[in-house]
Amino acid sequence: MAGQRKAQSVVSDAPGVAAPRVGRRERNKQEKLARIVGAARQLFSDQGFAETTTQQIAEAADIGTGTLFLYVRSKEDLLVMVFSDEMLETARAAFASIDAAAPLLDQLMQVFSSMLAYHEQDLDLARILLKEVMFPHVIGRGAGITELLDVIFAGLADLVVKARSAGKCHQEAPPLMIAENLFANYYLDLLGRLGGRTTAVQFHSRLRQHLAITINVPA
Amino acid sequence: MAGQRKAQSVVSDAPGVAAPRVGRRERNKQEKLARIVGAARQLFSDQGFAETTTQQIAEAADIGTGTLFLYVRSKEDLLVMVFSDEMLETARAAFASIDAAAPLLDQLMQVFSSMLAYHEQDLDLARILLKEVMFPHVIGRGAGITELLDVIFAGLADLVVKARSAGKCHQEAPPLMIAENLFANYYLDLLGRLGGRTTAVQFHSRLRQHLAITINVPA
DNA sequence: CTTCATTTATGACTACAGTCAGTTTATAGG
DNA sequence: CCTATAAACTGACTGTAGTCATAAATGAAG
Fold first, then answer.
1. Sequence-ordered list of residues with C-beta below 8 angstroms from that of B83, at least 6 positions apart, any chain
2. The whole model's pTM is what?
3. Cβ-Cβ contacts under 8 Å for A184 (sequence gap 6 or more)
4. Which residues have C-beta within 8 Å of that of residue A115, sequence separation ≥ 6?
5. What's the Rg (C-alpha) of chain A?
6. Are A195 and A127 in contact (CB under 8 A)?
7. Does residue B104 contact residue B168 with C-beta atoms inside 8 Å?
């Protein structure tokens, strides 16, 4: 390791080597952030969000209490950081595993069912997560959430376009607008589920009806 | 006043008089709650939600700090109590002032425009309000919000039914389901507006497109 | 190796939402 | 009127998110 560091000072900007560009400082920071996120994931999952204190997280990550807030703006921010990657992956996987031959409505239900299944693992956490995702405390900067929404909207719009060119969808509106409409319905039905106002079965039934209205097909 | 109190003890359950049924205790409680809500409305409007402390509210309402929490479960609860009546009234007024002859899409835009106009008065407050309304801290009990949603859903469903019987709407789905779909779209577009991601003009344009998709008419 | 400047780390500290043991005030019965 | 019981009130107190002045670590330059 010490050798690597010296080599770096010999050739200050060597293009051949992958990336010794980052000094010890940057590496330490990355590593610390990883420890923080890891500790938070563990604690949030084990004890729940409200029951976990920032002190506990700092202690588990082996840093001072104040240090934590050099890496995250708030406890809620941390929650989003921890789980946004998983959500993104869930969304990607959901779109990847779609049955291309199925009717559009069934395809949509496949996607949204996968996403609900993820949230069903821990409804309480999902509630707080969704809350913070849709109402980020600092306006104009939701931690990496835009990417998630982009993936979802693009995926939905893509399904619509394909179904339409196959003559299976008779909505003429712009695909992105339809995608947003579909997502809006998913979001509100998810809210009902997370708030305990519907069961998983009711969620599916209601969502299917809502989506059917949007894409103008029989439920 | 003292006379009234004595009269009460003479005839313990006099049916003729309007309602001396409530003793001083109940009256005091009502009056105190009114003072609390009034003080909170004033302070929230003047200084914003985050900048207002529960101590300030208690002081302005002339009660002890602890007393406040005999009347509300949390600061957020108080926000909802303060503004849910106004929102309900806004929604009622919006439905009442509809042009019965206009196309369904225009009617819907009238309703939702009125509701946005209310929120435009104070976007920050609206943000926190919507957040708390849709994610009440104590699950299963949103302070008087069900009533608001009932009014909105019923109103929307009613518009749909009327338009349909006039042959102006070709959606066959249950009216309540359509109403929910419409509201979901309003809600998400409102979220974009409150998050500063769209202007008021963009909000209108986008909402109109989204609603048009749901009721299956040209935008 | 030795400064020196800059970035990063730290925990004592602050501010505030919400609680609770102890007190006051209203009502009912005598 | 007086007394007993229950309801309502209170502010000192607690727990925790987030800040800030100070200290340590890092890298650059001589």
1. B41, B125, B129
2. 0.89
3. B184, B185, B187, B188, B189, B210
4. A87, A90, A91, A94, A186, A190
5. 22
6. yes
7. yes
| Chain B residues closer than 8 Å to A202 by CB | none
Residue A171: which of B171, B206, B213 has the nearest Cβ? B213
* CB-CB contact of A215 with A178 (8 Å): yes
> Structure tokens of B1?
């006043």
Which tens digit of pLDDT belongs to each residue from B141-155?
555 688 999 999 999
Contact B60, B44 (CB under 8 A): no
Query: For residue range A18-69, what is the model confidence (pLDDT) as tens digits?
Result: 334 567 788 889 999 999 999 999 999 999 999 999 999 999 999 999 999 9
- Sign, CA dihedral B101-B103-B107-B109, equals negative
Token code pair at residue B121:
């008065």
Output the CA torsion sign for A106, A112, A115, A121: negative
Q: How far is the CA of A32 from the C1' of C6 (A)?
A: 20
Residues engaging strand D (CB under 7 angstroms): A 9, 23-25, 28, 52-55, 65-66, 69, 74-76; B 25-26, 28-29, 32, 63-67, 70-71
- Which residues of chain A are within 8 Å of residue B134 when distances are taken between CB atoms? 131, 191
For residues B80 and A94, give the distance between their C-alpha atoms in angstroms, rounded to a whole number.
37
Return d(Cα B196, Cα A138) in angstroms, integer.
Answer: 11
What pLDDT, on a 0 to 100 scale, did the predictor assign at position B143? 54
CB contact under 8 A, B181 and A139: no
Amino acid code (one letter) for A57: I
Record the tokens describing residue B199, joined without a space: 């202007």
Which of the 8 DSSP states describes residue A64?
-
- CB contact (8 A) between residue A212 and residue B181: no
Distance CA B215, CA B105 (A): 8
Cβ(A32)–Cβ(A108) below 8 Å:
no
**Secondary-structure percent of chain B, ordered helix, strand, coil, rounded to 5:** 70, 0, 30
**In this structure, which amino acid lies at residue B47?**
Q
- Rg from Cα positions in chain B: 22
3-state secondary structure A70-107: HHCCCHHHHHHHHHHHHHHHHHHHHHHCCCCCCCHHHH
Residues, chain B:
219
For residue B139, what are its two tokens? 């699950």
CA of A100 to C1' of D30 (A): 68
